Amino acid sequence: MIPSSRGPALVSAVLLLFAGCGYIGEPLPPLMNIPGRGENLVALQRGPNIILHVTLPTLTTEGKTINRPVHLDLRAGPKPAGTFDLAKWAESAKAIGGGTVANGVAEYTFPATEWIGKQVLMTVKIIGANGRDAGWSVPTEVTVVAPPEQPHDLACEAVPQGVRLTWQGAGTSFAVLRQGPEEKGYSELGRTPKPVYVDTTAPFGKPLSYMVYSVEKAGTGEAQSELSKSCELTPLDTFPPATPLGLAAVPSTSSVELVWERNPEPTVIGYRVYRATGNGPFERLAETQEPAYSDRKIEPGKTYRYAVSAVKGNHAESKMSAPVEVTLP
Question: 131 and 57, same structural domain?
Fold first, then answer.
């Protein structure tokens, strides 16, 4: 018989033994490790090719992180008429290879000329390292047209408003792309129906690169041409500002009060005031940061003519405004 003094110690030992065994219950089923379906299929026609992007899943269908490489099975083919069965269509659709993966996105580029005038469907299956998959993704659709004409002879030049682009090429709409010195890629600036575009947001003094492509409507979407060759320049602001408008002069016994319209250009830092006595030449009278000036260096009975100009931060000066004349009593 075990002495009663050892009872607590024995109970503790028994508890520790069961604690070491962990949870006792039904065994969990093994994980299937099936990758999720491909997401965000985006496709477009560029020139004679279709470019497709698909975001790769990061989790399995059970919500677990995918740690091993996956394999992609991409299919493309004409959209069938009538009832659509994705699995049957995929069996006869064309398998597309040669994709690349970067930053979790797979990209495929493949010829589209065999499908000109047709609606083309694309779907992808993500296959895990164990050979399992969650089935085909929701298809995306592109209407293939004859490749739009590629713009050529792109030229760019600095103008007072920014950078003016011109090019050659047929089309009803063109997209303009720009890449700045601190940007990793090109971004779209805007679109224009004519082969000319002025980039009013171009920063002076920084290297810029431009490209253009033409755009045509294709079904409910659009088709793009191949990108033009790039045009690079560092625009410099060597241009004078616009001539001030609305100059008016109001004489009094002790001064002539001048006012005019403020120049809206952000690089204008001030104005220069010019005065001529009688029919004499204009001479610089003063400089001011505001569109107003009070001339107190006047003499009774004399006739004065006034004009003003605007000055930019690059020291470029505009032409003088239309003159105004006052005769003092």
Answer: yes
The answer to whether position 121 is within a domain reads yes
Q: State how many domains the chain has.
A: 3
Nearest partner of 205 among 235, 175, 239, judged by Cα: 235
Distance CA 272, CA 105 (A): 58
CA atoms in the 13 A half-sphere facing the CB of 315: 0
Both 259 and 223 in one domain: the answer is no
Q: What is the pLDDT along the chain (329 residues), one digit of tens a residue?
A: 434 445 454 444 434 434 444 445 566 566 778 998 888 899 999 999 999 999 999 999 999 999 889 999 999 999 999 899 999 999 999 999 999 999 999 999 999 999 999 999 999 999 999 999 999 999 999 999 999 999 999 999 999 889 999 999 999 999 999 999 989 999 999 999 999 999 999 999 999 999 999 999 999 999 999 999 999 999 999 999 999 999 999 998 899 999 999 999 888 999 999 999 999 999 999 999 999 999 999 999 999 999 999 999 889 999 999 999 999 98
Query: Which of 108, 143, 178 is the endpoint of a domain?
Result: 143
CATH of the domain at 184: 2.60.40.10
**Full residue range of the structural domain in which residue 45 is found:** 39-143
Same-domain status, 131 and 52: yes
The answer to whether residues 217 and 191 belong to one domain is yes
Cα separation of 66 and 69, whole Å? Answer: 8
